[in-house]
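Case study 2.
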Amino acid sequence: MDVKRRRSVLAAVGGFTAGSLAGCLNTVSQAASDQPESTSSTEHIPDGTWSQIAYDARNTAHVPDARGPRDDATVTWTSLGERPVYPPVVDDGLYLTEGWTDGRAFEVGSDDGEIGWEATSLPPMRWAPALHEHRLLVVTRTTDNVVRLHALNTETGDQEWVRERGITASSGQHSPTGPTVRGGTGYLGSSRGVIACDAATGDKEWEATLAEHVIDTEDGPTWVTDWVTPAVTADRVFTFDMNESYQATRTVYAVERGTGDQDWTAELTLADGWSLKGHVVAGANRVFVSALDPHMSMGFDDEEWSGTERLFALDATTGDVDWQWELPRKTLTPPAYADGTLYVGEWYPDADTGRLHAVDASDGTVTWTYDTDVGAVRYPTVANDTIYLAQGTELAAVAPRAETPRWRLALDTRAGPPIVVDDTIYVHTNPGHNNDSQLLAINDPTQ
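Prediction:
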């Protein structure tokens, strides 16, 4: 359907100068930034489940009722190792899809890592799966660019339904990306915006066309859209096109959750070469996005890194910029959000060290910082009173304001996002669609 443009917001944030870690702010909407970030949410997620990439529909990576390995950690089982996979989703078992293959979705036992059912007749995948009740939602694309949305029964792997008509998807170049599920609806980054589908039947509820999927370049028209995993709240769906190849992405979009009608757009004023990255993380009153100068991220400059990443907080109802923070170095993965705090992992490329910053979501103040000397901090995930993260080739558990972690676990390879379910972490190693990944289960031997 045609999207009606209700409100357009120009977030003029140019001319920003970095200050100290705790004070690198440019407050654009003081009234909004004075509002507290509450923790209320009407989204219900059953205990013992991890249903999508960043745990919930808001992409918070916050599991309030899970404990995780608290005081120590050991690998209790390993699985896989000869195939590239995307991060698992979890209920009674673990469900995974292979990356950029002939097409395979499969189940792994949560207690022993044994492979259960396998669905081997699917087309290639460039997306992680999502769970809705007993269904595994999987997006595939054939070699002739036919995109389908499939629902597989989680007990058997049998296909319950498949939808092709009206289904498109973004290119999926930047994994992990995948469907977002909230209530009875699945939201998918399409070739031009967002599609909402009934998760029980696959029937399309609405489509929000936010931008064309072809742009003009010096070499002619090119298909370049890469719409990120949507963040979904009770009222709105948030996304952006991470079109970093042409350094042209500047705009965050909000559409009405029930209809797909466009609510607001926020165009961030950034210098040439900057682009948005990761995905939107939705708090209670604000949404958070990161922007990076990819020229610097590629290491093309001989000069020392000079603060070329920014974190923006936008008012969720208007798109106004409440505050922004310029990081000393750069992030590699989106932040986590829990109880009014953002947890931002950082990498110092010149020294190959990392930091985890706790940032007050209401005003951008850095309240504490954890330092590590073993590499980049990736995938912060909050469970109860512990932040789990990948640091270099380790996993670590960090308590708030602590200078040393509760535990460190050497993996000897880079890890994907920690999936925290009850007292266990599941993690796949060596992430990437061309890499062979292992799947690990990690527990506290003292619990």
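The first strand starts at residue 8 and ends at 11.
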